[in-house]
Design brief:
The protein has 466 residues and is α/β, with parallel strands linked by helices. It contains 15 helices and 16 strands. An 8-stranded mixed beta sheet has the order 4-11-10-9-8-5-6-7, with helices on both faces. A 4-stranded antiparallel beta sheet has the order 12-13-16-15, with helices on one face. It starts with a helix and ends in an 8-residue tail after the last helix. 41% of the residues are buried.
Amino acid sequence: GFVGKRLCFNLCVMSQSDVGKSVSSTDDGMCSSKVVNSTWNIQPSTRSLLTINPIRNLVQNIRVQPNPKLDKLDLSVGDPTVYGNLQPPQNIQNALANIVSSGNSNGYPASFGTLQARESVADLLNRQMNQNGSKNDTFQFTESDVYLTAGTSGALELALSAVANHGDNILVPQPGFPLVQTVAGYLGVDCHRYHLVADKSWEIDLDSIRSAVNERTVALVLNNPSNPCGSVWSRKHVEDVMSLAAELKLLVIADEIYAEMAFNGLEFTSASAVTGCDAPVLVLGGISKRFVVPGWRLGWLAVCDRMKVLENSKLRQALRQLTTRMLLPSKIIQDVLPQMLEMSSGNTDAFGTLMGELESNAKLCFDGLSMASGLEPIEPQGSMYIMVKVDVERLGMRDDMEFCTRLLEEQAVFVLPGECFEAPGFVRIVFSPPERILRAAIDRIQQFCTKHDRLHAQMPAHKVSS
């Protein structure tokens, strides 16, 4: 009635005075309103502006043109499919084609993954853990511990979203893969750095963990085998790190996407394989590297809570609830996963071929770059990367960024500067391309370093005997 109409009119007038809305009356005395803005004022969210990926920013925004007289040789991005020399196993490609043709994988899966796929991940993790764990260890992963994600990047976002609030902090490696900081920045989570020691095959300086932790620290992030360092930690070092995490009462987030990708007979030790340690672990993994299928976008997060530290926590509930709003891996890929991971029950021919090529390439890069003036490579122990220390003063460069841009400009070889990984004075080189590409790139890098070597320029010329 009248009272209702008057109330509507008063609210419209209040709205007009408060936010600048225009008011008009309808024939029945009711009012209507619409927002009138004199100018457009559409702003990006603060969260979006805090989302920075150093590698993608560099690769997508670099302004230097490669030498047009040479074919560009790209050793910058860790995608093993770029040159086509590494391929997923043919039987897995055939299995995927059959699944697509069957028409049985077109529906929605559960938000945290299908039962069969999660069981296959649990079986894989148990095999990895039992290979180098204690025979008396009674802990075993089950499907209820596993959450499937859109790649390992999705698993990282799931983990950080579940454990960290705005203003909390996590401990991250330096050097380290920058996506951790990218995701943390998006969530308003601070990153405190701990240090990896190049002269000790990139082992952690444990004292730097103690120095970085405070009352707002919620997790310790590990990456083993490492991107960008190419390191594989010994079992003793993993045990020492996990012991410290338990002492400091820190949840461990273990990025193990390169699990088992170790060279020279080295043994990969998962953080989940350390027995007698009560630090809970969120193990992150996926299929992108060892199966050469990064575009298939399937990863996982698995909860290892050997000592039931999380028994009274709602973390598992939080993980499951978060999966209801996040991107899932395709059901088609989930359905082929059991066959893929069954191949991982031993050193299959496909995996052996992959690791044989990567190990050969790693040696080629280490030996060849060791001969380049002003470069000091750190011998890789696994994954697909080698870190190389650059004597920028000897080569007449300001920093590692100038080294990379001038190398691209003069020799059309693209590598990433250490600043992408918070490793000033280093560059990262990917050695998954075929041998012919690596040999050509190493030859050009050697020529580039010889040309710019100030020490060489100061030495008297001498004839090299044939």
